[in-house]
Design brief:
It is a single chain. This protein has helices spanning 19-49, 56-82, 92-125, 130-133, 136-162, 179-185, 191-222, 228-256, 266-287, 290-314, and strands spanning 9-12, 88-91, 171-172. It is globular, with a radius of gyration of 22 Å. The mean pLDDT is 83. Helix 1 (19-49) packs antiparallel against helix 2, helix 2 runs antiparallel to helix 3 and helix 3 packs parallel to helix 7. The protein has ten helices and three strands. It is mainly α. It has one domain: Rhodopsin 7-helix transmembrane proteins (Rhopdopsin 7-helix transmembrane proteins), CATH 1.20.1070.10.
Amino acid sequence: MQNINNVTEFIFFGLTQNEQIEKICFVLFLFLYLVIVLGNLLIIVTIFFSSRLNSPMYFFLSYLSFVDICYSSVTAPKMIAGFLVKKKTISFVGCMTQLFGVHFFGCTESFILTVMAYDRYIAICKPLHYTTIMTRRVCGQLVAASWVGGLMHSLLETIATNQLPFCGPNEIDHYFCDVHPLVRLACTDTYIIGVIVVSNSGVIALSSFITLVSSYIAILVSLRSRSSEGRLKALSTCASHVTVVILFFGPCTFMYIRPSSNFSEDKTVAVLYTVITPMLNPLIYTLRNEEMKKAMKKLWSQKWILCFREGPSRR
């Protein structure tokens, strides 16, 4: 495909063109982004400094929180800054970089969520073999595989999109650079690239979701022979993860399992998995997890005690 590129920058339409609504959106999304960063950092710091949270589940959770921060940081700051200006532009290189980051961290998150479901399956269905199967080395390999899988996926998406000829127009009806909006701007037949996008992004989202559902079906089947107390404890452990899976994979599957088309709902759906889900993850995993809440209280009470002790000594 001959790459004819007369476009040096792209113009975002953003979430809205109304100036009054943009001011409200600026305050709202700035607040949400701060919650994402601070909430996920709180989880990472708590897991890192707490000796009680040393199981594989929290090891994976710390990486999930890190990916959430990175994932939102690829799109949210640019979107928030765009609420303050009339013309929302991004360079061609910046657009391709943003496209790479969105798919890299988004795909990595989907793989980590799948790994977390596998961890819960082993913990509940094979408790006697859990420590021998989910060793520290295996956990590290699973996380590394998630990063490599995300890298390979994002490279394919970015390289394929970068090869498209863009000769105008350069206006994107979105608030960040993604494959579907860019494909619609290409001045060539995009059937092949459309097939690549659906087969790559769609298959990854759908296969990960099917794997997750299969894991939890197996968990539910195995719980039938447990006592009511054991079932409640196991279900409580899995409830947080299931909630996050639904919030993340539902919108992603809607976006990437279908051919490229211009739906006005795309921007709203994208907000769910780039902003709302990363914001809710810390709340879901802390409010529904007694171990995490206890570890946070203990850790931060110790920090305050140390601060009060150091204060008089310095004086």
